Every structure is written in C-alpha cells, then in structure tokens.
Amino acid sequence: MQTVGKGWDAAAIWERTLKKVSLMNAAIGGKSPHVAREDGKYDDLRIDWWTSGFWPGILWIAYDMTGEERYKDAAWSWDERMEQHMLRPNSFDHDVGFQFLPTAVIKHRLTGDEDGERRGLFAANFLAGRFNLNGKFIRAWNSDMHGWSIIDTAMNLSLLYWASQRSGDPRFGQIATAHADTVLRHFIREDGSVRHIVCFDPNTGLFDEALGGQGYAPDSGWSRGTAWALYGMANTFRYTADRAYLRAAQRVAHYFLASLPEDSVPHWDFRSAEQLEGEPRDSSAGAIAASGLLELAELLPAKEGAVYRRAAERILQSLHDNYATWDDDGSEALLLHGTGHKPAGQNVDVSLIYGDYFFIEAIAKLNGWKHRIF
Question: Could you tell me the strand order of the sheet in which 148-150 lies?
Fold first, then answer.
C-alpha cells in the first residue's frame, strides 16, 4: 500500500464518490446490506439488523447534495419498513439510532415529512426504554445480558438529543447525558483508549467487569470502538456544550491518531498480542474516525480545529487511494479491507456498509454538507 500523497481535491473526490453511489443504487436496490466479500456483492440481511440504516443513509446524503429525485425515491420507504417490523417480533436494540437517524430523522429534516418525525420519536422512545436507572447506562443487545453496555451506543445518543429538541421533552436528553457520563467514567481510559463492553449489576448498577467484545482483549484498543467514542463524544458536546465531552473526544482522537500506521488506516485493534504488521486493517474504523475528526474540527477554534481536519483528510485520502473500488464497476461496495469481528473470525478483510456510509458522509462534509444526523 502506498502512503498518503500530496494534493487533496475534495470536490473531485465527491464527484467520483457520487458516480460510485449511482452504480451502487442500481445494483443494491432494496437490499439491506451489511457485508460484501470477494465477489463485491452485498448480502441482504433482515431489516432489524443494526446496519440496515446505512444504505438508505447514503441515498439521503446523495439526494441532499444533488437534489436528484432518484435518490430520494430509493430512500423514501425505509423508515416505514422499519416501523412495520417494529410492530412484529424483532431484534431491535441499542442501535436504533443507527437505523432511524439515517432514515426517518433525515427524511423529516430534508422533506418535512411528519411520518418521518413520528417514526424517529417512536424509535427514541424505544431507546430511552432501555435505560437502566441505577447504573445510568443504556442496555446493549437483548436476551439475558441485562447489565451489558457497549461503546457503540455513544453514537446512538444523537437520536435522544434530537428527540428532546423536536418534542420539547427534556427526558430524552437527560437519558443521553446520563449515559454519556457513564461512558466518561467506565469506557474511556485515561490514555484515550476505549473499552468495548462494560458489564454492570443490572439491579444495583455497580460496575462488574469489562469484556473484550470485538476487540482483542478487555484492556486492548479496538479501533472501531475508539472511533465510535471519538465521534460520539464530539456529538455529545455539540448537543450539551459541556466541555468534559469535548476533552474526552480530543483525548480519544489523540490516542487514535498516535496509534495509526504509516498509511493512516488503522489495524482492527491497536493492542494485539501479535505484531500489528500482520494484523488485518479496518477501513470502517478509519472512515468513522475521519468523519468524527471533521466534526471535532468544527467544534473548535479554526487554528486548533485545523489539526483534526488535516488528520481526517490524511485518513480519507489513504482510503481513497489504497482501499477503494473505483476501478471495479462490478463491485457494489466502496471500501475494501474492513474487519467486523476478528475474535469470532467473522467478516475479516471484507467490505462493510457502515464503512462506505461514513466515508461518503465525511466526503460530503468536506463538500459543504450540513444536515448532520449523528
């Protein structure tokens, strides 16, 4: 792989990205994609799987940036499909923000659709209902894991803050902030590294243990979880103006950037027992972190923020130059070399729809996109 070169033309990269989205739209259609493997074809998972919002989210960004009705038409029905599935036996969980922010919420924001707003508030009520009062955390997953919470939920808090703004009910924001405080206390370490899973006693709310989850070990540095924390804490600061979250986002950003290899795209975990040189990369973690760094840059004075913007551009340019399928019109995916769950041997060295989403989101931000949903 080549290292990042000089010359950054965000407008040209957006045009190239948009061409790819057009090809994806023709190929993916109404599928609910998660993973694309060697043949470049995305799978089609159930609508309550946590990644189901990212493909329609890409379509809504394309519509917002171009005004082309074909993207709006392709994205329009996704929130309705999700709502209908919520009224049947389902597996929706802490990730409903990932599902309803890029569908119902952005639909309402861009078109004023009242059903989109109603569905977004419906999902926010569901998410708020997972809050553990004693532990001050939002419960992860379902089944019998009543006291488990994960760092990914930091990105879903935007749904609750949005719901407070739209409904006028402060309880949504209060729950989001209480969970964010738990992230500060129990997930983000002093050096800026991040735990994936923290287990609490569901009755007392007391800390029990940390688990490695999708990272190498409980004390390791899972790169995608680090990216979720960086972006999630920056968002929380944007909604609350509490500088504790801004400082946390910066601390995590510094750890993330200091841990990057020469080409600026992270390995799947920053702390592995093996030599990192031979470990898989996670292009999705790079894309998420880059979009979060751009968010962080906008929240700071221009001179200070420029440091984070340049770091985001380095990551994005490397993804563009070394990890993308620009020359493969038959691939339904954009980014290569993502890692889903390495400890379980699942989805290693694949394309991931959320990696594609956050790359496209970040490039859109560099080209003036303002309708934030996370």
Answer: 148-150, 197-200, 207-211
Q: What percent of the chain has pLDDT over 90?
A: 95
Choice among 95, 269, 282, 356 that is catalytic? 95
* 226 vs 259: CA distance, rounded Å: 11
Active site residue 201: no
User: pLDDT, tens digit, for every residue of 13-71?
Assistant: 999 999 999 999 999 999 999 999 999 999 999 999 999 999 999 999 999 999 999 99
Of the given ranges (8-12, 181-185, 236-240, 363-367), which has the lowest mean pLDDT? 8-12
Burial 261-284 (b: 16+ CB within 10 A, else e): bebbbbbbbbbbeeebeebbbbbb
Long-range Cβ contacts of 237-242 (<8 Å, 24+ apart): 237/299, 238/295, 238/299, 239/157, 239/158, 239/161, 239/173, 239/176, 240/161, 240/173, 240/177, 240/180, 242/177
Q: What is the pLDDT of residues 108-117, one digit of tens each?
A: 999 999 999 9
pTM for the model stands at 0.97
Question: What pLDDT is attached to residue 50?
Answer: 98
Task: Look at strands 207-211 and 197-200 and give their pairing.
Answer: antiparallel
Which CATH number is correct for 17-366, 1.50.10.10, 3.30.70.270, 1.10.10.10, 1.10.540.10? 1.50.10.10
Q: For the CA atoms of 275, 281, 282, 287, what is the dihedral angle to 10 degrees?
A: 120
Q: How far is CA 324 from the centre of its chain?
A: 19
Q: Which neighbouring-strand residues pair with 132?
A: 137
In this predicted structure, what is the pLDDT of residue 7? 58
Burial of 189 (0-12, 13-18, 19+ CB in 10 A): middle
User: How do residues 292-319 score in pLDDT, each as one tens digit?
Assistant: 999 999 999 999 999 999 999 999 999 9
Tokens 């719901």 belong to residue: 163
* Domain boundaries, given as residue ranges, for the chain: 17-366
* Cβ(256)–Cβ(223) below 8 Å: yes
Which of 48, 152, 282, 356 is labelled catalytic?
Answer: 152
For residue 152, indicate whether it is catalytic. Answer: yes
List the one residue out of 287, 113, 101 whose CA is nearest residue 176: 101
